[in-house]
């Protein structure tokens, strides 16, 4: 449709109202790949240079899920406990949380319990929680015990996804499943 530069064909309020706004946050220990997963989903990028997130990282994307346009706002919380106050603030009004561990680093898996306690304390009950085992491309270095993983998933009744931000394996599937679940609860 023709339009003059700087003007919208429909009022701004209507354009924005047509988009469902969704807030997703990524949590988990440092270095597990939260920023990389967001970058992959929002910008189809991957970098192997590690740049620790200071405080918070942000990405957004407009996605069409089952005929519904959604603007997804994704926040990457720093895994460092120094930023506890920032994280607690940002937990508010969250629709979905992806809790990431690194399948090659059992310590990051062991800390999931503590993260789940923090999540249940600070986020709203309606927030959908997904657990993500990232770095599955490093097949030979897997070190997380599968039985412990099964037990954790049974305890918390969360959906589980395996991803590689390096190859992209499972990344879009994970975010799309999150969005579909969030929309089905929201609408
Ligand atoms: N091999 C591999 N490396 C990854 C993957 N995801 C992230 N990384 C690397 O792990 C490091 C930490 O990633 P980053 O996204 O900054 O982690 P964050 O601290 O959780 O945000 C970086 O060097 C990434 O390149 C992955 O799926 N596979
Ligand atoms: Mg980060």
Overview of this protein structure:
The protein has 187 residues and is an alpha/beta fold. The mean pLDDT is 86. It has helices at residues 12-17, 34-43, 84-90, 106-110, 112-122, 146-156, 171-186; strands spanning 20-27, 56-65, 68-77, 96-102, 128-134, 159-162. The radius of gyration is 17 Å and the shape is globular. β5, α6 and β6 form a beta-alpha-beta unit. The chain has a six-stranded mixed β-sheet with strand order 2-3-1-4-5-6, sandwiched between helices. It binds guanosine-5'-diphosphate and magnesium ion (MG). Residues 34-35, 53, 57, 76 line the site of magnesium ion (MG). One of its GO terms (molecular function) is GTPase activity. This is DnaJ homolog subfamily C member 27-A-like isoform X2. Keywords: GTP-binding, Nucleotide-binding.
Quickly describe the structure.
With 187 residues, this protein is of the alpha/beta class. It has seven helices and six strands. Strands 2-3-1-4-5-6 form a six-stranded mixed beta sheet, sandwiched between helices.
Architecture blueprint of SSEs:
Layout: H1 12-17, E1 20-27, H2 34-43, E2 56-65, E3 68-77, H3 84-90, E4 96-102, H4 106-110, H5 112-122, E5 128-134, H6 146-156, E6 159-162, H7 171-186
Parallel strand pairs: 1-3, 1-4, 4-5, 5-6
Antiparallel strand pairs: 2-3
The structure holds guanosine-5'-diphosphate and magnesium ion.
Q: What series of H and E elements makes up the topology?
A: HEHEEHEHHEHEH
Instruction: List the total number of helices.
Output: 7
- Shape type: globular
Strand order of the largest sheet: 2-3-1-4-5-6
Count of β-strands: 6
Pairing-aware structural class of the strands and helices? alpha/beta
What small molecules accompany the polymer chains? guanosine-5'-diphosphate, magnesium ion
Helix share, percent? 25-40%
Radius of gyration: 17 Å
Question: What percent strand?
Answer: 15-25%
Distance between the termini: 30 Å
List low-confidence stretches. none
- Biggest sheet features: 6 strands, mixed
Chain-averaged pLDDT: 86
């Amino acid at each position: 449709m023709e339009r003059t530069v700087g003007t919208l064909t429909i009022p701004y309020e209507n354009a924005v109202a047509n988009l469902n706004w969704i807030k997703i946050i990524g949590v988990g220990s440092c270095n597990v790949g939260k920023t990389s997963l967001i970058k992959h989903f929002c910008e189809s990028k991957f970098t192997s240079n590690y740049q620790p997130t200071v405080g918070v990282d942000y990405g957004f994307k407009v996605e069409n899920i089952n005929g519904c346009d959604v603007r997804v706002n994704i926040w990457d919380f720093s895994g460092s406990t120094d930023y506890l106050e920032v994280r607690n603030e940002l937990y508010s009004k969250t629709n979905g949380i992806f809790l990431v561990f690194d399948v090659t680093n059992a310590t990051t898996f062991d800390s999931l319990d503590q993260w789940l306690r923090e999540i249940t304390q600070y986020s709203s009950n309606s927030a959908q929680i997904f657990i993500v085992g990232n770095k599955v491309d490093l097949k030979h270095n897997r070190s997380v015990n599968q039985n412990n993983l099964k037990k954790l998933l049974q305890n918390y009744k969360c959906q589980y996804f395996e991803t590689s931000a390096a190859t992209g394996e499972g990344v879009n599937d994970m975010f799309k499943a999150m969005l579909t679940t969030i929309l089905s609860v929201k609408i």
